[in-house]
Write a structure and sequence with these properties.
Blueprint lengths: L1 E6 L6 H14 L3 E6 L9 H9 L22 E4 L13 E4 L14 H28 L1
Parallel strand pairs: 1-2, 1-3, 3-4
């Protein structure tokens, strides 16, 4: 099984939570998923949980395993926000850049829920394309 690393800039990253949620839902049988953050068990913002729940993804508990971890090899694939560098300690076969992490969403605003829904759909579309192209085609 290939090892997949989601690289985020903050442990409470909205971007990282959405990416991990969809990877776990659609690709958990294809890859092991790890998170590069200060704490893989970081709480997911309640609005992120709500918009992901609307799409059938349970984010009530963040299930990330942090990387690096003892006994876990270097990841095969890294998913990171567009414009973010791969950390120097990470050696991967492939890097997939996925939309900027900075969402420009004030999570306390009235518009936040609708903005998160739009961003969720963008991220989901990119990830489904990536999973179909890179993961499913290589596992057949």
């Amino acid at each position: 099984m290939r090892t997949f690393l989601v690289i985020e800039d903050e442990p409470s990253s909205v971007w990282g939570a959405i990416v991990e949620g969809y990877l776990r839902f659609y690709a958990v049988q294809l890859v092991d998923i790890y998170s590069w953050s200060r704490d893989g068990r970081a709480e997911v913002h309640p609005l992120v949980r709500q918009v992901m729940d609307e799409d059938g993804i349970d984010m009530s508990v963040r299930r990330s395993q942090s990387w690096p971890a003892k006994g876990v090899k270097q990841p095969d694939i890294a998913v990171l926000p567009d414009g973010h560098p791969v950390p120097p300690r990470v050696r991967v076969e492939k890097v997939h850049r996925l939309l900027p992490a900075h969402l420009d969403i004030d999570l306390d605003s009235e518009e936040a829920l609708e903005q998160l829904r739009q961003r969720r759909e963008q991220i989901k579309g990119h990830l489904l394309h990536f999973i179909g192209k890179e993961l499913l085609s290589s596992s057949i």
